[in-house]
TrEMBL record, chain A:
Family of this protein: Belongs to the binding-protein-dependent transport system permease family. MalFG subfamily.
Protein name as annotated: Carbohydrate ABC transporter membrane protein 2, CUT1 family
Domain ABC transmembrane type-1 per the UniProt entry, residue ranges: 82-281
UniProt keyword Iron, yes or no: no
GO cellular component, one term: plasma membrane
UniProt subcellular location: Cell membrane
Domain of life: Bacteria
Automatic annotation (TrEMBL), chain B:
Organism field: Raineyella antarctica
GO annotation (BP), single: maltodextrin transmembrane transport
A Gene Ontology molecular function term of the record: ABC-type maltose transporter activity
Classification via InterPro entries: MalF_N, MetI-like, MetI-like_sf, TM_PBP2_N
Family stated for the protein in its record: Belongs to the binding-protein-dependent transport system permease family. MalFG subfamily.
The UniProt record lists the keyword Cell division: no
Keyword annotations: Cell membrane, Membrane, Sugar transport, Transmembrane, Transmembrane helix, Transport
Transmembrane segments: 33-54, 60-78, 87-111, 305-328, 340-360, 390-412, 432-456, 502-524
Membrane topology summary: Multi-pass membrane protein
Function as written in the Swiss-Prot or TrEMBL entry: Part of the ABC transporter complex MalEFGK involved in maltose/maltodextrin import. Probably responsible for the translocation of the substrate across the membrane.
Entry protein name: Maltose/maltodextrin transport system permease protein
Domain named ABC transmembrane type-1: residues: 305-523
Gene Ontology CC entries for this record: maltose transport complex
Length: 296, 534
């Protein structure tokens, strides 16, 4: 932007050449689009490449075939992985949203002893990521698996419970900031009309904070779908794996080349739920993130 | 909190409201009361279900914790006066059990030598040494062995079901000893076909757990029972035994002794040989000394910390700068196809990142990778430390900049245009207006996200674990690789092929936490300063 330093900003007026006003913007945008897209185009090309290997894949596909998709669905446990991932991510997202909304309501609407330390504590705990304690968690779940196999390793519930442990940290802060923007008079007047605190929470507050619920839900969903480290330790049985663990296994070690087509097909299928959800809820994201961020 | 409409919560005002909140009985809503009863009933039902196995296993401490926490839950929801705990409890309970407790245990582990060879207390080490010295003798008793797993799945805890060939009585053998199993169904060969509460493994399942079978030895009065294959077991006598007088292990056959060393948690012979089975001892700051003072590891560890900072900062500022540039470029209604551009630019953020990391890994493949194809080069990207670092930063940049683009777009749109217009009226150049008006305002709303992004990328395991896996590894340091972040290094220490070093891994975790916490606290302080500017 060195060449624009001497041009005064006069908004709305048409000064300078077309390039200085609009043209460069298109150039930047086109460069960004190309950079964003080329790996994705490569994945599409690999997914429809009939040979299915990495070495035979080029940026632009030469021949199209759906063989990789049918191989993926018949030769691997992809269906179970997909189902596992979606179930775990949906349940975790709903649980995370609900738990943090409850906590955010208390922090935003009530003044009580330990409120500030509580908020600080959440911030601090969040800085010690859960997976740093993975060794202890592993040992803990070894015991849980012995006592209660239904919520132990290789089950939905074990992983979901674990993810719920990490639900409060960042989400609560984000939500509390948003809750604070809802005028308190609303719940006061509802209470005067005889509403209980439960009715205020479910009937007054929750409908007004839908955008932030959508954002935290979406972020939590995306995070869970992409979580690899703990899932890899927890899920070792083929049919219990999530997409991240299962697809990683497909291209591990010397299988990277031969299975690449199947892997790319799997990537595209995995992208469907996240991309759809992302573009449906996108309009909430920016507002939700920054609104929550600046409030103390 | 100046942005909140403040209603003074005086005691006089609050009291009548609280009384009405009461039990929910004084209210007019029987549905709410019903919901409460059902909810508390569920809590009780879950508590009872959890209690069963605890009682059966004799885990009294855990049972006590369960009873106490159930009572606490009931108390919180039945009492009518304190509202906040009712809303905080669910989240806090999970946070406590699955994060705070593990974190605290991790911190205590950091000061021990816990890991392979040092798993349990000294008594366990002695039992393990004695029973692994068991040898078959002429008078050994043979059993018919059935391998089984505790619980409904074949990957539960491994046990031996031992049938005495003479009496056809079945006993369950575990590392704790023998218990009779009168309910076992025995087939014609003497093999157990069914036992309630256990899953009998078939040959395939058993051979998958061959290592567990080989390692399990059931202590008995004479020595121990060990498997020989998957269908036979024998009770042999031990050749090594522990004597408390000398606090040592003696081998009957050779007469050699190993004396306990409480500092290292090993039995050591006079010549300095150690027995492989040790026990868990407190090593104080030993793990941290090893990290910083060990000549080889210390050098690599400092380098790793520096690289960890470089990676996180490069990614955060790189993605922020480029995201902001694009946001500025597109923050103008005169640009046609704005929406179209935005949708496409943001796509990397919506794609599943774990899969795209693996795709990028393969795009950097030397022989068939797209990057070498497009650049016309033949570089071994992951074989050279500098190139590998460049590659992982590029990959994470690609994944991260759409997010920054989104965030800065939103922040730019929320900056009132009269501010920049006022700057222009005062004769400020575009650059000056951006630097003095737009950027500070932008930073106020995005700084917390930048800090969050830093702490995320500082511990971005996936960015390394799914691409270079920490490599390339220098010849003098097979465990700390050229692109290793502290977190990927920790993971390898704990779960890598070189044997589990949990205590050491926990020490590294603690270092990570201290770094991230310090940086974040400084960051948030600076943000607070920024906010005051407004």
């Amino acid at each position: 932007m060195a060449d624009t330093t001497t041009t005064p900003v006069v908004l709305g007026s048409a000064q300078g050449s077309w390039f200085a006003r609009v043209g460069w913007r298109h150039l930047v945008a086109i460069a960004a689009v190309l950079f964003s897209l080329f790996p994705i185009v490569f994945v599409v090309s690999a997914a429809f490449n009939p040979l299915g290997t990495l070495s035979s894949t080029s940026l632009v596909p030469t021949r199209l075939s759906t063989e990789n998709f049918s191989n993926l669905l018949t030769r691997t446990e992809f269906r179970s992985w997909f189902l596992n991932s979606v179930v775990i991510a949906v349940v975790s997202a709903f649980a995370a949203v609900f738990l943090s909304a409850l906590a955010a309501y208390a922090f935003s609407r009530y003044r009580f002893k330990g409120r500030r330390p509580g908020l600080m504590f959440l911030l601090l705990v969040q800085m010690f990521p859960q997976f740093l304690a993975i060794v202890t968690i592993y040992i803990m779940f070894t015991t849980i698996t012995e006592l209660y196999p239904r919520i132990g390793f290789n089950t939905y519930w074990g992983l979901i419970l674990l993810y719920m442990g990490g639900a409060l940290g960042a989400n609560t802060w984000l939500m509390k900031g948003f809750f604070d923007t809802i005028p308190k008079d609303l719940d006061e007047s509802a209470k005067v009309d005889g509403a209980t605190h439960t009715q205020v929470f479910f009937g007054v507050i929750l409908p007004l904070v839908t955008p932030i619920l959508a954002v935290t839900g979406l972020l939590s969903f995306i995070q869970t779908i992409n979580e690899f480290l703990m899932a890899n330790v927890f899920l070792t049985a083929q049919d219990a794996k999530t997409l991240a663990v299962g697809l990683f296994g497909l291209v591990q070690g010397d299988r990277a080349n031969t299975n690449f087509g199947m892997f790319a097909a799997g990537t595209l299928l995995t992208a469907i739920p996240t991309v759809v959800l992302f573009y449906t809820l996108q309009r909430y994201i920016v507002g939700g993130l920054t609104a929550g961020a600046v409030k103390g | 909190m100046p942005d909140r409409p403040t209603t003074p919560a005086t005691p006089e005002r609050r009291k009548p409201v609280l009384q009405r909140e009461g039990w929910g009985i004084t209210g007019t809503n029987p549905l709410a009361l019903l919901a409460k009863i059902i909810g508390l009933g569920l809590v009780l039902a879950i508590a009872v279900a959890l209690a069963g196995p605890l009682l059966a296993d004799g885990r009294w401490v855990l049972f006590g914790v369960l009873v106490a926490s159930t009572l606490l839950v009931l108390a919180v929801y039945v009492q009518p006066y304190r509202i906040p705990p009712k809303y905080l409890l669910p989240g806090l309970a999970f946070l406590l059990v699955f994060q705070v407790v593990p974190v605290l245990l991790t911190i205590t582990t950091a000061f021990t030598n816990f890991g392979d060879g040092h798993r349990g207390p000294k008594e366990d080490a002695i039992v393990s040494i004695e029973s692994s010295s068991v040898q078959r003798t002429a008078d050994s008793i043979d059993y018919v062995l059935t391998v089984a797993a505790k619980g409904p799945t074949p990957d539960g805890k491994l046990v031996f079901l031992l049938t005495d060939p003479a009496t056809r009585q079945v006993q369950i053998g575990t590392a704790d000893g023998l218990t009779p199993a009168p309910d076992a169904q025995v087939g014609t060969t003497g093999k157990v076909t069914e036992l309630p509460g256990y899953t009998v493994l078939d040959i395939g399942q058993a051979s998958a757990r061959a290592k567990d079978i080989e390692n399990l030895s059931v202590p008995t009065a004479r020595g121990a029972i060990r498997a020989s294959g998957v269908s036979r077991a024998y009770e042999g006598s031990k050749t090594r035994s522990y004597a408390p007088q000398c606090d040592c292990i003696t081998d009957k056959a050779t007469g050699q002794t190993w004396t306990a060393d409480p500092k290292t948690g090993y039995f050591v012979s006079s010549t300095g040989d150690r027995l492989p089975q040790g026990w868990r001892v407190n090593v104080g700051l030993g793990n941290f000394q090893r990290l910083f003072a060990d000549p080889v590891l210390g050098k690599h560890f400092t380098g790793m910390i520096i690289w960890n900072f470089v990676f996180a900062l490069a990614v955060v500022f790189g993605t922020f700068a480029v995201g902001l540039l694009i946001a500025l470029a597109l923050n103008n209604p005169l640009v046609r196809g704005l929406k179209f551009y935005r949708v496409l630019i943001v796509l990397p953020y919506a794609m599943p990142s774990f899969a795209m990391l693996l795709v990028w890994r393969d795009m950097f493949n030397q022989d068939f990778g797209l990057v070498n194809q497009l650049l016309g080069t033949d570089l071994n990207w992951f074989g050279d430390a500098t190139l590998a670092k460049l590659a992982v930063i590029t990959i994470q940049f690609w994944l991260g900049y759409p997010y920054m683009f989104l965030v800065t777009t939103g922040a730019l749109q929320s900056i009132p245009s009269d501010l920049t217009e006022a700057a222009a009226v005062d004769g400020a150049s575009r650059w000056l207006a951006f630097r003095t008006v737009t950027l500070p305002l932008l930073l106020v709303s995005t700084a917390p996200l930048l800090i969050a992004s830093f702490s995320f990328n500082f511990n971005n395991y996936n960015a390394i674990g799914l691409t270079t896996e920490g490599g390339p590894f220098p010849p003098d340091s097979p465990t700390a690789g050229g692109t290793d972040l502290l977190i990927s290094y920790t993971y390898r220490l704990a779960f890598g092929a070189g044997g589990a070093q949990y205590g050491f891994a926990a020490a590294v975790s603690l270092v990570i936490f201290l770094i991230v916490a310090t940086v974040s606290v400084i960051g948030f302080r600076r943000t607070a300063v920024l906010e005051e500017i407004n």
